[in-house]
Specification:
ATP-binding, Prot_kinase_dom, 24% helix, Tumour Suppressor Smad4, five-stranded mixed β-sheet, single chain, 567 residues, nucleotide-binding, protein serine/threonine kinase activity, Transferase(Phosphotransferase), domain 1, Protein kinase domain-containing protein, six-stranded antiparallel β-sheet
């Protein structure tokens, strides 16, 4: 048995270290039960419990030596679970509970309140990932990672504790709660993944697997799903805390005025997802109301995304509103780097397809831009529209602070003084600008209005002139391009008057008619028809990024005639 915790990290016979963690001495008392003695490693160091010299002897001098390796800082009694003992009998993995005949580690005597005969067990799967299962307890278990989800008690559930050996772990402090009894569990050899440790893990898995067909206590995935509420419930049918799935937030991948986006891990199946949390607005009236306006907006976004062809996964309202979405490691298309024209055409078609669906449901995105388009390249290329439902009509104050690559995609009618409102064709304009930028580049935007000394109507008029000039430059750019399959669509997307623009459905139909788009057999998503990208007989190509507008040369100024003020 190794003498120090640091030594244990290099002893490949060690599977797990279990330490008492609660403040009421429940776990500490349980770990010291005689049944657990074969695993027990008592804390050493500290003050001697009995005298070591006679009362008349002189007090020995301090040794002056460095502390003994037995003088462990923050020492605590712990159980050291080793493979050599565990593998003797482990049909259900490492079992915790109150029944001595079935438990490797006792959490109390039979009759201990809130703890079952078979409370939970720790197992290894075929990928050598480590899991905790609570399939048979009466009162449930909670598993916290770095303090998250301490109150999320579940029954008939499982939690991921560690990914495969050698993989960087996201779980640094794992604490397991059972009716007030808390223990800390670590797997000190798992990340280093030394060869003998991996062999021991495989033997552990084989011993479990050999008994798997004889066990009837393990619920099927379907039974787990029935026990939990559906992950696609409507906001009016919000899941109760005891039903909803559990997620652990991991790395921060995005921030904004709305809140933050983290990668997160779904405990039941170790799926990595994206979790979008929302910051409660400051100085907001009605914070104690059941449904303040900001929460209603979040519910609206959830409802919109739930009905999107690329549906979200889950929605929690407490302890903080959180929308769980699929995670796209490549991020948004603006950060994905320059792609082939065929992929940009596929993205254009897929977004048109998504907008066609949304607009048919009466939903307008209102903030379409490359940063809101997520991209996935493996196993197949696809894009997903993100951030629904929270964008609002741009007001004067917003114009002063949010340009930075956003307003150049906004439709003219979004700006103050242009229109009383806007509808689905505002998204069509935005996507037209995006498509033009992807495949042909766009001209340089006009200088922003000098708004320092302007207010009210004067400021609105400045932005009115700016968007008219910018719109005219974009429209002129489309007209200057040679006619091709993409321009045939963009020319009807970038029309100044909203009523003159094609709908998403009509744009999509045009792409199928002229041979630009087709649907991929594997998933029915819209992609570029490969033949549309082949050079024509004269070698000119049926669509191609303009050489004069190559990204290497930067944007090109074009001569425009501003839209008349009365238009």
């Amino acid at each position: 048995m190794p003498d120090t915790l640091s030594d244990m990290r290099y002893d490949e016979n060690v599977f797990a270290v279990v330490t008492a963690y609660d403040l009421k001495n429940k776990a500490s008392s349980a770990l010291k039960l005689p049944h657990n003695s074969k695993w027990l490693r008592s804390a050493v160091g500290g003050v001697a419990e009995t005298p070591t010299i006679d009362s008349r002897e002189a007090t020995p001098a301090a040794s002056g030596d460095t502390p003994s390796e037995d003088d462990e800082p923050h020492a605590a009694d712990r159980l050291i679970v080793t493979f050599d003992k565990l593998l003797l009998d482990c049909p259900s993995g490492l079992q915790f509970g109150t029944r001595p005949t079935s438990s490797h580690i006792l959490l109390g005597h039979r009759g201990t309140r809130g703890i079952s005969a078979r409370q939970y067990n720790i197992v290894v799967d075929e990928e050598l990932r480590i899991w905790l299962h609570d399939y048979t307890s009466t009162h449930g278990t909670a598993v916290a990672h770095d303090g998250q989800n301490e109150e999320e008690t579940r029954k008939k559930e499982k939690w991921i504790l560690a990914f495969g050996p050698g993989m960087e772990t996201s779980f640094h402090k794992i604490t397991v709660y059972s009716s007030g009894l808390a223990i800390r569990i670590e797997f000190p050899n798992h990340e280093s993944a030394r060869s003998q440790y991996i062999k021991n893990l495989k033997r552990f898995f084989d011993r479990q697997n050999a008994h798997a067909f004889d066990r009837s206590d393990i619920p099927t995935l379907r039974e787990l799903e029935v026990d939990s509420a559906s992950t696609t419930q409507a906001p009016s049918e919000a899941q109760t805390p005891s039903q909803r799935l559990v997620y652990y937030k991991d790395k921060l991948i995005g921030t904004g005025a709305y809140g933050m986006v983290h990668t997160a891990i779904r405990t039941r199946d170790a799926t990595v997802v994206a979790a979008k949390t929302f910051t409660r607005p400051a100085n907001k009236r009605g914070l104690d109301e059941a449904d303040p306006r900001w929460l209603m907006g979040i519910r609206r976004e959830f409802a919109i995304m739930r009905d999107n062809p690329h549906a979200i996964l889950d929605f929690h309202e407490t302890p903080e509103p959180m929308i769980v979405m699929a995670y796209y490691p490549r991020g948004n298309i603006a950060d994905a780097g320059l792609m082939d024209d065929e992929l940009y055409v596929s993205a254009l078609g897929q977004i048109l397809d998504g907008l066609s669906h949304l607009h048919a449901q009466g939903t307008v995105h209102r903030d379409l831009k490359p940063e809101n388009i997520l991209v996935e390249t493996q196993p197949l290329f696809k894009v997903v529209i993100a951030d629904f439902g929270l964008a609002k009509v741009i007001d004067t104050a917003t114009l002063l602070t949010t340009f930075c690559g956003t307003l150049k995609y906004a439709a003219p009618e979004v700006f103050p003084g242009i229109s009383d409102g806007h509808g689905p064709t505002a998204d069509i304009w935005s996507l037209g600008v995006i498509g033009l930028e992807w495949l042909y580049d766009i001209p340089a935007a006009p200088r922003l209005p000098k708004v320092k000394d302007k207010q009210g109507d004067a400021l609105d008029r400045s932005w009115n002139r700016w968007i008219k000039l910018w719109s005219a430059k974009l429209i002129a750019k489309v007209r200057d391009e040679d006619d091709d399959l993409v321009i045939q669509i963009l020319s009807h997307m970038l029309a100044y008057e909203a009523s003159d623009r094609w709908s998403a459905k009509r744009c999509l139909e045009q792409g199928f008619t002229n041979g630009l788009f087709r649907r991929r057999e594997a998933d029915d998503l819209v992609i570029c028809d490969d033949e549309s990208a082949d050079p024509s007989s004269d070698g000119s190509g049926r669509f191609r990024r303009s050489q004069a507008l190559s990204p290497k040369q930067g944007p090109v100024e074009v001569t425009v005639t501003p839209v008349p003020a009365g238009s």
